[in-house]
Write a structure and sequence with these properties.
This protein has helices at residues 24-33, 44-51, 104-111, 127-135, 158-171, and strands at 13-17, 36-40, 59-62, 65-66, 71-78, 93-102, 116-121, 141-147, 174-179, 185-190. It is globular and about 40 Å long. The protein is of the alpha/beta class. It contains five helices and ten strands. Helix 4 (127-135) packs parallel to helix 5. The strands form two sheets. Strands 3-2-1-7-8-10-9 form a seven-stranded mixed sheet, with helices on both faces. A three-stranded mixed sheet has the order 4-6-5. The chain starts with 12 loop residues before the first strand and ends with a strand.
Length: 192
């Protein structure tokens, strides 16, 4: 992940949605800036994994996920994945789980946060449904880091959905400042 470090320091708040078995980004932010990272992942494999980790005091794990509604979501572990569950429908899966999810606004309220400096989304295809809801609170977000999962869609319209979502984000006042070489991770900075 690439960030714009100009406004990140030890008072910064980062929301990292989609932990899986990897908190290297979260730990690097904490080590470099002393920021406070909140990791979110409701899936059973991730919850069990994080319990075995020694995490710094600046890392807080929440065993619920992000959605465009409050409640319970059906998650599937695709046949070709070892840890990354998805809320996408129609995925051939080897495991299923029902997990607690909340809207972005609800999470802000639950945690008592007014402003999030960085929101990272690696949520296996759910980003398309979540982003419109998240943008309702765009004034509370400094940077958006998103991995798009159009490759997981079973139709040829996946890439077009990513293009439309990027356009929506830009129209909400965010500018792209980085795209990964593989073209899946996009980083946006809110223009004030």
């Amino acid at each position: 992940w690439c960030i714009c470090p100009d406004s990140i320091d030890d008072s910064s708040l980062i929301y990292s949605f989609g932990v899986g078995f990897d908190i290297s980004f979260d730990l690097a932010i904490i080590k470099r800036f002393g920021a406070h990272v909140h990791g979110f992942d409701p899936t059973p494999l991730s919850k069990a994994w994080i319990q075995r980790q020694l995490t710094p005091i600046n890392f807080t794990f929440h065993s619920y996920g992000l959605a465009n509604y409050n409640g319970v979501a059906n998650f599937s572990l695709p046949l070709n994945h070892g840890v990354s569950y998805t809320m996408s429908l129609g995925v051939d899966s080897k495991k299923e789980a029902k997990c607690e999810v909340y809207r972005f606004a609800t999470i802000l309220e639950k945690l008592g946060h007014e402003k999030i400096d960085i929101v990272k989304l690696d949520i296996e295809g759910a980003e398309y449904d979540v982003i419109p809801d998240l943008l309702e609170k765009k004034h509370k977000i400094g940077q958006l880091l998103i991995e798009f999962h159009h490759r997981m869609m079973k139709t040829e319209h996946g890439l077009e959905r990513t293009r439309q979502t990027i356009k929506m984000i830009e129209e909400a006042g965010f500018s792209i400042f980085y795209v990964s070489p593989r073209g899946l991770e996009y980083c946006f900075l809110r223009q004030i």
